[in-house]
Amino acid sequence: MSSPSRRSSSPESNIAGGSGSGSAGDERKRKRMLSNRESARRSRARKQQRMEELITEASRLQAENARVEAQIGAYTTELTKVDGENAVLRARHGELAGRLQALGGVLEIFQVAGAPVDIPEIPDPLLRPWQSPFAPQLAAAGGMPDAFQF
């Protein structure tokens, strides 16, 4: 007995024309299946390679993210430090501005009273940053000392 899925071979199908066309169709089908399998294998290999590339990229990005977060932490610490120093300088500025204003008031009182006031000029290095505040002292001492003299 033959199964229903198999074709029964009759003497007419065994003739040169009959069995050759069936075999050629089967051969094409087999080649197409092999080609499809190979294509699927290449597709899976590409997907696997892409997955590995993405995992590597994710690891690199996580490491870079950790580095950037550490740098942000360092900058935040530095900013906090500079903010603290700035607050101290602002307070000192306010204190000195108040003292200067008070001294200006005292000076006015002396001038109104007619007392002679001799105020020496105090060099301000912020107004002339290219000049050393010690230049008058060095000139009086005989010029610049030779730093390389033993």
TrEMBL record:
UniProt keyword Transcription regulation present: yes
Main subcellular location: nucleus
Compositional bias segments (type: Low complexity): 1-13
Transmembrane segments: none
InterPro entries the record matches: bZIP, bZIP_sf
Keywords: DNA-binding, Nucleus, Transcription, Transcription regulation
Family under the similarity heading: Belongs to the bZIP family.
The protein's name: BZIP domain-containing protein
Source organism of this protein record: Aegilops tauschii subsp. strangulata
Highest classification ranks of the organism: Eukaryota, Viridiplantae, Streptophyta, Embryophyta, Tracheophyta
